[in-house]
């Protein structure tokens, strides 16, 4: 029985290469350590089971194909794959939302900058009116340009907010 515990591929390779030397045990130890411990344990368990069945000590029905641990591992693996897929989808959604938020914040920053320029221009206009001076063509063009830019940025910001509001309500 002890002879059958040595893996088949190790025994045959050890017999072929060392057909009379005592190095078979050292080859076995090196090959055994190269196998992952779990796989080595499974191989040994299969060989012991096969040997016990071959000798008639156990019936083949005594060992079900899927034991409860293996079925639990499979169940948990399927759960984990479903959770991983869900997490991946959620990460993609969050990434898209974060990109949209960054664009919205950039628009808001530009709008704040234009608002500051409008306030400064308004102060100049008020100062000119107090001095009873007419606005120059440059000042009027600046006012027109700033208000158009403010309107454009404000419309873009509102367009970005409208779909976001629908998502939060649902």
Automatic annotation (TrEMBL):
GO terms for biological process, alphabetical: regulation of transcription by RNA polymerase II
Region Disordered: start-end pairs: 1-38
Subcellular localization(s) per the UniProt record: Nucleus
Ranges of biased composition (kind: Low complexity): 16-27
InterPro entries listed in its UniProt record: Histone_AcTrfase_su3
Similarity comment: Belongs to the NGG1 family.
PANTHER family to which the protein is assigned, alphabetical: TRANSCRIPTIONAL ADAPTER 3, TRANSCRIPTIONAL ADAPTER 3-RELATED
Protein name per its UniProtKB record: Uncharacterized protein
Lineage, broadest ranks: Eukaryota, Metazoa, Ecdysozoa, Arthropoda, Hexapoda
